[in-house]
Amino acid sequence: MKIFKYSATGNTFVLVDGRSGRRRTATGGPGVPWISAKGGGLRRPKQLPILAQKLSQEFNSDGIIYIDSAGFGRQKLIQNQQCDLQLIFFNPDGTRAFCGNGTRTAGFYEIAERRHGRHGKVRVATDEGTMIVEVFGSIARLRGIPLPLSRGRVTLDAGAKYFEFEKIWSGCPHAVTWVKRLFHVDVKENGSFVRNHRNFRPKGTNVDFVERTGRGGIAVRTYERGVERETLSCGSGVLAVAQSARERGLWKGSIKISTPGGFLQVIDEGKSWSLGGAVKKIFEGQAWIE
Hints:
There is one protein chain. This protein has 2 domains: 152 residues, Diaminopimelate Epimerase, Chain A, domain 1, CATH 3.10.310; 123 residues, Diaminopimelate Epimerase, Chain A, domain 1 (Roll), CATH 3.10.310. Helix content is 18%, strand content 40%. An 8-stranded mixed β-barrel has the order 1-2-3-4-6-7-8-17. Strand 15 and strand 16 form a beta hairpin. About 10% of the residues have low confidence.
């Protein structure tokens, strides 16, 4: 099975294209690990969460992008959605989710690797609906993103500190808090505490720590649910932070938000938002599926 590894502003993914080579066998090249997953080929949907766990662990990624042209689970036949491809995203723990950076990456792959799409655009079916990815060189912009929704506030006692969090839905749940010294925050410890807090049960939440920087800038660090650690960037997290900043009157029109992996730009397009940033291919290789 052929695989690709991509980085979207530091958010790393293994991409599997299920539209071709499902049962192809091949030898792995130098430095490319072998993967063994019992129980048949990729056409068996129940195997995908297990495959996601194995590939994420073996290739040290933040999730798995699975691309297909047939309906799966909550999504109906792709022909009914008038899309170029269907994206199914899995976290490293095997849970299914919407991923903003993952969707940008899928569109980048379709245009840059497969040379598909008209005028640098493709329509992608996701768990949050149909969206468009545009590619300009190394930049992939996701358009047609539903507006984030604010769902109230909660104050949590994290040891000796109190944090006030905003609950925001941006394709998946996020808890956003504003801090003064971002890089002094223990994202692993505090993020894990909030992610598993009873206020966010049963499914938990992603956690975003945000700081206003010089000259009106905004920086964020995110603890991702399903990855269970801090990642270098999170697309839905940046959208949630943009919503929080918008409610504070910090921007209109567009905003660039800094993550440890680079900048992401959010643009208000009226009835929807867009999210843009760099994407690059790290490598491609072969993985063995029994």
